[in-house]
Amino acid sequence: MKWLCGLIGEDIRQSRSPAMHEREARHLDMALEYRLIDMTMPQYKTYSLATMLDEMEQNGFAGTNITHPFKQKVIALLDDVSDAARQIGAVNTVLFRDGRRIGHNTDWSGYRENFLRGLPGVALHSVAQIGAGGAAAAVSYALLTLGVRQLSIFDLASDRADGLAANLTTQFPDAEVRSVRSIETALKSAQGVVQSTPIGMYAHPGTPFPPDFLTPDQWFSEVVYFPRETQLLKAARDRGCKVLDGVGMAVFQAADAFELFTGRVPDRERILREFD
């Protein structure tokens, strides 16, 4: 049997997902092909997200990952979603099963596992999060499952931050989740800072805020993994912060998706070792 999987997104031609999935499949003596569907490419100019899902399903895909900017838009095109994906309001993995499309979210579990491995024992009472998009929603959900009590969310699209804060408050009524109107307000008195926007990627260079906003007693977590060390992560390390890059999140969300696609348990340690 040959497994066919993919990734739908924009500006994703440098994604590591095909290598991670296909290499692990070879280790497990499986035939698996993982295709990148970059919707900015000319050959997909006439496709909508809906028509792309239709074509993948008709061509026998076991499933597909979903990334920016489709993690929230895809939900309306699915037959069912997992409890976590429903609570988060974003899907990054779609399974095609018996004529049905089922959405899952492995971003949150991937981030959570990376955090537990990379920043054990850090203070979690108050955290600032920059970004409120699809990946950010999964990260904030993970943070609250880890025990964060006060979460301040900033996004340039303030209505998006408002909506995420309201949704999380419903899911975690014992925590204080608020949308703020400035990064300075978000970072003030925060014990940790999470950067969960695409800024810092090779396709979106720069920093979402000046590094001197960070203090040495804060920890800093990045979701961008390409490059492994973003400009902001390097600056945070240079300022004395404990830091966590986004590689582990990328690896563990991919491992969780691989297991959903194939039913086989991948070797997470091996994928992590071989990432670079």
Write the layout of secondary structure elements.
Layout: E1 2-9, H1 17-27, E2 31-38, H2 49-58, E3 63-66, E4 80-81, H3 83-88, E5 93-97, E6 100-104, H4 107-118, E7 126-130, H5 134-145, E8 150-154, H6 158-171, E9 176-179, H7 183-187, E10 192-195, E11 219-222, H8 231-238, E12 242-244, H9 247-262, H10 268-273
Parallel strand pairs: 1-2, 1-3, 4-6, 7-8, 7-10, 8-9, 10-11, 11-12
Antiparallel strand pairs: 3-5, 5-6
Helix pairs in contact: 4-5, 4-9
Number of domains: 2
pLDDT < 50 runs, ≥5 residues: none
Estimate the global geometry from the Cα principal axes. Answer: globular
Per CATH, what is the topology of the largest domain?
Rossmann fold
Top CATH class of the largest domain = Alpha Beta
SS element count, helices:
10
Extended strand count = 12
What order do the helices and strands follow?
A: EHEHEEHEEHEHEHEHEEHEHH
N- and C-termini, Cα separation? 28 Å
Biggest beta sheet summary: 6 strands, mixed
Look at the structure and name the CATH superfamily of the largest domain.
Answer: NAD(P)-binding Rossmann-like Domain
- Assigned CATH architecture of the largest domain: 3-Layer(aba) Sandwich
The computed structural class is alpha/beta
What Rg is obtained from the alpha carbons, in whole angstroms?
18 Å
Share in helix? 25-40%
In terms of DSSP E residues, the strand content is 15-25%
